[in-house]
Design goal:
Chains A, B: This is DUF4445 domain-containing protein. 2 copies of one chain form a homodimer. Chain A has helices at about 15-20, 40-50, 65-75, 145-150, 155-180, 195-205, 225-230, 250-260, 345-355, 400-425, 440-445, 445-450, 470-480, 485-495, 505-515, and strands spanning about 25, 30, 60, 80-85, 90-95, 105-110, 115-120, 130-135, 185-195, 225, 240, 270-275, 280-285, 290-295, 315-320, 330, 340, 375, 380-385, 395-400, 435-440, 465-470, 495-500. Chain A is an alpha/beta fold and about 550 residues long.
């Protein structure tokens, strides 16, 4: 996982100070052999020994009683029971006869709309053995999640969407295990953090009601599944834990993110911002947490904008523009000629165009300026970042006023959401001491640039931290710290979730935020607006579209 | 169930005073419809409404989340969730859309070595709809349980023994339901009380270690099964509860019996005696319970003895002998000519032969007496109860000295066990205020006769109560009173179980008890020993055989 951009700095005191308390363990037990004075049953004997180690109450899968007792006998009462924390009790997953359980492994999965990220963890040592990210195999069903929900309504559609996810899991986990010389049957735990829709797809639950008012999930929290229930090709009785969601727009990925950033045990007021098609925001400290999510439009992830793309090789992710010559300098992920521009590149571009006076505070391109890069295209004025001979596809890489308008709506939505949530609890943005920015976006974005365009509030730069894949991080942390199960359960019920109600008041606020940096420059004292940026009329305001 | 003989008088204040608290119920819920201000998930909405009725925590079968939420929608949020108490929580068994759940039924099974007794109960009204008893289909594998355990060791033997039990369950429950015009899918609960070996067979658990020292069950308590786990043809997710056992020789049938007699909440010192091949005895009150089991031999159930039979049509179950003429008067179950003699008949016979001076205190037949009924057969002296022309098979119905010797060993074992258990806790038999005698035997036995032969202690006759099928009774009670789950769990761990150690001391005690009524007549002050009963030498003492 790339952790460039802003420094990775997630507190993990919770699990570190207490040592490992993995979700699944397999302690070696030398059970007293039965005799006439101690003739308790085989499984009760095992249960008793585990209870003496605090592993109680123990729950047996009724279909395996005979098999488990057989293994106790096979090991001649020297066994390693494989036990996993399951809610307020323990599940007996298996019994390994003899003094060593072999490997005790777990997988964490960040089940994202675009990508699936897998982490293979050794639960005995706490070591991460391998990780891999693959494209979400549902993409052929629809790039955005709304079209996948529509596909799920077709006959066998939901099954197909689930099956391709599970197949991808089985292929990737098998590859990682094989590379590490490990066996699938030694994987006893699987944790999954995804947004609400992805969690529904993963579990084969109908997402139809997620995308129509009043946006109702099938379930907000899920029982522990066993691998065989879902067709996961690991130990058939491996525990599968899917992070709960708070609502249709607030998924387990964000709960895992809160856990990863330790928001729930910080004294300072902190904020977690997950930027995507929807902006998901959590604000709070160890005493309270409030969350809000709203459509921000896909612009920040590099979607919609004509030459926009994901932060991937070939994408421009950093740009500076010389205010005199109006010539750009840029960086291409992976080097070589650029293919497109990703979210952070777009933010840099708009911020630099604004600072260079190419863009007005209304987001219009100042066509009065003399530069071969400022051109009039069929759909309006544009700025050419790279000429045809400098790009990978031999076509001009231009960003139009229309593209910029889309970005401005996204950034306005983001700023408005941050404002709404702080106002809801009667604090000011200045009271927020840490803002964690999650996602690939968070690793690439330059907060100084985001402040210049008025997307992020004008706070000291060290307030901001990019924290990468917090969903995957949280899911992996839970594998090694079962006490987080309880934390998550409390979080789920503790978080006050505000449904963003797009009304007149909000639209007024949003309108002001579509300007560069804002209609009220007092909100951005650090941004020095260039003289020539004060220009033509504003864009048409319309809140950007999101998805569940 | 026949309740002749001694009056049926089981206290049921527990469930009566509290009203019905059935194991499974299906309350009608009108859930608030979701809206933007109350947009919790479908299943969380159901869970919340159940929690408001105290039904919490709710456990979902992970494989049915989608189906359950679908039914909530199908009922347009007006539903009857079918919930069953499962340990310290509740299982969501099903959701019935609409305002009525239909029937909510349960079966209780007394899973005996010889017979299976089924009770069909309406869990909503508490009414017993039907009951039926069928022979245990395992009998062709072996009349006694030990030979079945041996059969289970063969390839697929255990599966075959389990399968025939389950098949018998499916046939009998289907017949009862069909006669009552009810549907198998409306049966949501199934409770089973059996001895430890039968519970193992029912669940497909290997009983091999039950019959060899140190006599270890696979498990002493069992998780809740679902009907589909066992192939029971009722609702596939119906809860199946198998009463726990305390050890190889102390099964769930006896725990159910304790519950049925209310031994655990009586102030007075009481005793439950279950008479079969093994005599199982529980002594105690609401503060403590001690249990003991020991082989008593099959004589008391009508086995072994040549003309012995179960208490069934054709069996002589009551006999009186005129001390002058030495002529008998008897009663045949169901009327007509006799086929054999059952346990209670045998006890009457021996008691009457003793009182008439036909039997000596050593259990020998006084061949000096002049009577056409006292004869010398190839295997020794005998008493002819019915001549060939009076019997159903046209053969003399004779009981020999050998037969009587077998019965005397059984009765001596029984008396010794009762003595051992009272001595263990430092009380005397005179302190015991109630003695409940379970089983068919208990319904037929005349305690006055049992005292005369020295099988039961010489206590006031109203101390004794025949209580019939307490195992089935307890299993049926649990269907209607889920609080008994906790009672049973406490009982299981509270009962002190004494393994009967057949040593020299015990053998001395046993030897004295093989006499009529005992070598120490002071123990039986109410028994007037006739002069002519003081006769020849004693029988060879050897503790009778039992089975696990």
């Amino acid at each position: 996982m790339k952790k460039d951009g802003i420094q990775w700095e997630i507190p993990r005191e919770a699990s570190r100070s207490r040592g490992l308390r993995p979700l699944v363990e397999a302690p070696f037990l030398r059970l007293p052999r039965p005799n006439l004075d101690d003739n308790t049953a085989d499984l009760d004997r095992l249960e008793r020994a585990l209870a003496q180690r605090g592993i109680t109450p123990l729950r047996f899968d009724p279909r395996t009683l005979g098999e488990m007792a057989g293994k106790v006998r096979e090991g001649d009462f020297e066994v390693c029971p494989v036990v996993g924390r399951e809610g307020d009790g323990w599940a007996l997953i298996d019994v390994v006869p003899g003094a060593s359980p072999g490997d005790v492994l777990g997988f964490a999965l960040d089940c994202g709309t675009s990508r699936l990220a897998f982490y293979l963890v050794d639960l005995a040592s706490g070591k991460r053995l391998a990780e891999r990210s693959v494209p979400n195999p549902q993409i052929p069903f629809g790039e955005d999640i709304l079209s996948r929900i529509v596909k799920a309504r077709r006959r066998d559609g939901l099954e197909a969407l689930q099956r391709c996810l599970i197949n991808a899991c089985n292929e990737t986990t098998a590859a990682l295990l094989s590379e590490q010389g490990r066996s699938p049957s030694d994987v006893y735990a699987f944790t999954v953090a995804g947004n609400t829709t992805m969690s529904h797809f993963f579990l084969g639950l109908d997402p139809a009601n997620l995308c129509r008012e009043p946006y109702i999930p099938v379930a907000n929290h899920f029982p522990f599944y066993r691998a065989a229930d879902l067709g996961l090709a690991i130990h058939p009785r491996a525990l599968v834990y899917v992070f709960p969601n708070v609502g249709a727009y607030f998924g387990g990925d964000l709960i895992a993110g809160i856990v990863a950033c330790g928001l729930h045990h910080r004294e300072d007021l902190s904020m977690l911002v997950d930027v995507g098609t929807n902006a998901e925001v959590v604000l709070g400290n160890r005493d309270w947490l409030i969350a809000c999510a709203g459509a921000a439009g896909p612009a920040l992830e590099g979607g919609v904008v004509e030459r926009g793309m994901m932060a991937a090789p070939g994408a421009i992710d950093w740009i500076r523009i010389d205010p005199g010559s109006l010539e750009p300098t840029y960086r291409v992920i992976g080097g070589g000629k650029p293919v497109g521009i990703c979210g952070s590149g777009l933010i840099d571009l708009v911020a630099e165009m604004f600072m260079a006076g190419i863009l007005t505070i209304q987001g219009k391109i100042n066509t009065q300026l003399r530069s071969p890069r400022i051109v009039e295209l069929p759909d309006g004025p544009a700025y050419i970042v790279a000429f045809a001979d400098e790009t990978a596809d031999g076509m001009d890489l231009a960003v139009s006023e229309v593209d910029i308008g889309i970005l401005l709506k996204s950034k306005a939505a983001m700023y408005t959401i941050l404002n709404v949530i702080t106002r809801k609890v009667g604090v000011s943005l200045q009271d927020v001491k840490h803002i964690f920015i999650a996602g690939t976006f968070g690793n690439h974005i330059d907060p100084a640039m985001a402040i210049r365009i008025g997307m992020l509030p004008d706070l000291p730069l060290d307030t901001y931290q990019g924290v990468g894949n917090t969903a995957g991080e949280g899911a992996a942390m839970l594998l090694l710290d079962r006490e987080l199960l309880e934390v998550v359960e409390k979080l789920r019920t503790r978080i006050t979730y505000i449904e963003l109600n797009v009304n007149m008041e909000l639209m007024n606020e949003f309108r002001g935020a579509t300007f560069l940096p804002h209609t009220d420059p007092r909100l951005f004292p650090s941004v020095k607006i260039p003289e020539r940026a004060l220009g033509r009329g504003a864009l048409r305001e319309e809140w950007p579209r999101g998805g569940p």
